[in-house]
Fold ArsR family transcriptional regulator.
Amino acid sequence: MEEFESKFSQIASIIGDKARSVILWNLLDGRAYTATELATSANISLQSTSNHLSKMIKANILSVEKQGRHRYYNYASAEVAQVIESMASLVPLSEAYTKIKKPKANDFTYARTCYDHIAGCVGVKITNSLIDHKILEISEKKYIVTDYGKEWFQKIDIDTNLIKLQKRSFAHQCLDWSERKHHLAGALGASLLEIMIKKDWIRKKKNSRELIITSIGKTALKDTLNLEI
């Protein structure tokens, strides 16, 4: 027990550092970055960044991959990304934000990526619609695809049986930090974003985590989920 408490305390200490928390937050766009890029985002020296990265790799929070002359850093697993996004829900929203009734379509809180799945207002709306249409059911912190859901996903070219073979969480709840409600995460959430991009329902905004819902996407979501975006 003491060993577990010690390791837990160590992880909490690593994540709680200001510079490291900034690095982890910036990695939520799902892309890998070099130490130089992460140093710029955290506004610290390259040497200091290297030290921080080494600690997080040792703690299995981050992983590094060498490609050519560069080393690229990313989360060690999707579960780490889930923890970082969930932590943001503990941050109280500003008074200015709470006055915003309808975020603009290009606003960060409206539609964005959370690691490799859809988050923000749109992500929550899609998830709720999947539940309302009996495509997904909630079981504790996870989502279960119904028999009708398997057919629905198949119609948009997603094979849920193949996705279940992946060595990661299939479909779980991720607490959206801006909406304070859950959206779909895991391998199924990642596949949904991937197919929506492939079908041009959604486009990624360059150099940003923001997502753009296309006119094709708005029509498709209305046809498939009776969802107005």
About this structure: The beta strands are 62-67, 70-75, 112-114, 117-119, 136-139, 142-145, 172-175, 182-185, 202-204, 211-213. The radius of gyration is 19 Å. Residues 2-16 form the longest helix (15 residues). The first strand starts at residue 62 and ends at 67.
